[in-house]
Structures
1.
Amino acid sequence: MRTKRYFSPETKLEVVRRYAAGDGPGVLAREYGIRGTLVHQWVTAYKEGGERGLRGPGRPSREAVAAALLPSSVEESATHSLQAAQRRIALLEQKIAQQGLEIDFFKLALRHFETSPPPAERPGATAPTPSSGRTRNRKAD
């Protein structure tokens, strides 16, 4: 059974730099006693996360924690909050515009209803009867 070997970030960085300088993954794999795919993994990790990408799992260093608390992360969270606020404002503006359209529609419908003659005065309509419960005048002026 093989035991898992650990490589320091400095060793990984050295392999990545030599790979970037032109040494092939096979040559580096033989020299360091690792698989060629591991060389590619380290190169990919370096491209994605820089030297921090080459750190192994575990507790972050004090420097990493301090860097995470620097103003850049505060600015990122402020930027995120600003974007969220802008999205919320846009949604509220859309809602206000929709409500304005609905109010205009109902004002027009009410104006149409108020200016239309009562049912008894329309051609072909019947007048209200006392048993129908309808009154002759809709509005009490």
2.
Amino acid sequence: MRSLPFKIEELNGGFALVEGILSVKENKLCIEFHKKDAVFGAIKSDVKSIEIPFSGIDMMEYKKGLFSSKLTIYGKNATALKDLPGDDLTTRKLKIERKNPE
């Protein structure tokens, strides 16, 4: 099973970011991540692991860019994405670096 590294940037007014890996297992998105401060990168949280069932996801949208791409996950309700850090209630935007396979 391949995993896809991602970032969620601009959390807490730009002072925090999330780095993690995304993979698919059976009928779930498996996400491992840690949160760190965006200024120095010195303060990191412990690695957390969550699973989001596909039944909780309304839609996923992939937009390819020149230097990076974005994967936007839309939850069916507020609880679907509650364990994945983000500023929006039902949407998470994951930045995928260009060097990763598409």
3.
Amino acid sequence: MLAASPAAASASVDLDGSFSFTIIKPDWIGVRCPVDVGDECGVMQLVGLGPADYVYVYGPTFEPNGTRGCRDIDGILTITLQSDGSRISGALSGVFCNPGESAHQRRTPSYGNPQREDDSVEFADGSGQFEGLHGTAWFREHIAGARFQGTLTGTLTD
């Protein structure tokens, strides 16, 4: 939802998105994006904004953080509204956890084992409806069995 206050000439956009899909094992090749696009791609539904393509490019950080099966991570997350091409990107940092020793499989996570990722994203550099906006959002993903689910929540302001 885009809300503007004429008196203060400020704008804000609430990000409230989610996605969910099933990973089909015989078709799973460990990659969720076309070559040279990103490491993970999909479509999320943003309340008030409609469907948005997201691209998550994994960063170089993938380091154990002292909790068994958990690693500190980084990357870049970009969302693009399908309605008008408005786009915003941000630096992502967080924690990826996978029980046992399967967390080291960066591109081909174990099928069936639970995994979770909890990240913050510092959005900036937007275009269209996101131009001039910035803010922090929380990107969370959870995989269990063949089910892959995620959310994006936060507020962008000028």
4.
Amino acid sequence: MKILDAVSITLLVMRVACANTTLAVAYAPLAQSTSTPSTPSKQYPNAKTQANQLNNAVLSEDYEKAADLTYPKLIQLIGGRAKYLAVLKGGMNETQSDQFRIISTVSDDPTDIIEVGSDVYAILPTTMKIKVAEGVLVGQSSLIGVSNDRGKHWTFVDAGNGFNHKQLKTLFPAAADRLKVPERKPPVLLRTL
């Protein structure tokens, strides 16, 4: 398997559910909302903590916990919890091997937070390290975090490539026009000595 193909597959594993949202997802109209300006991330420390709980759950194959930390509307659009669990498990099984293994996925503090009514949306930069025969690939992506209780509990969607604006509006109708999802950067190969 070519390195770039393998990287693309692995980065898609963390957003495997997002790729499937294109299947017969109806367009949801943009809701009217009142919103407040960006809020400092220090007011939402649980976002980073719970994003990393999701990352660790996926890597430790605790798919039930991963589903608990995944944005419920995404799970619904995929076809329910059982189908989501099967897709996540299948994707991870396909990408992990002796020559290709995700060794870490770490999310950082939110960089862009918006409030819409009582909901809070955040973009969390995420770094993934993947062991390959040639060394370690380091890729940058991000998660979209959503809290319906002003930052106490969060659920997430991987915001890597595969999202277009219409899909954002389907998942987050009240916030899609204001979410600033950064483009995924190409992975960098760090050669081991």
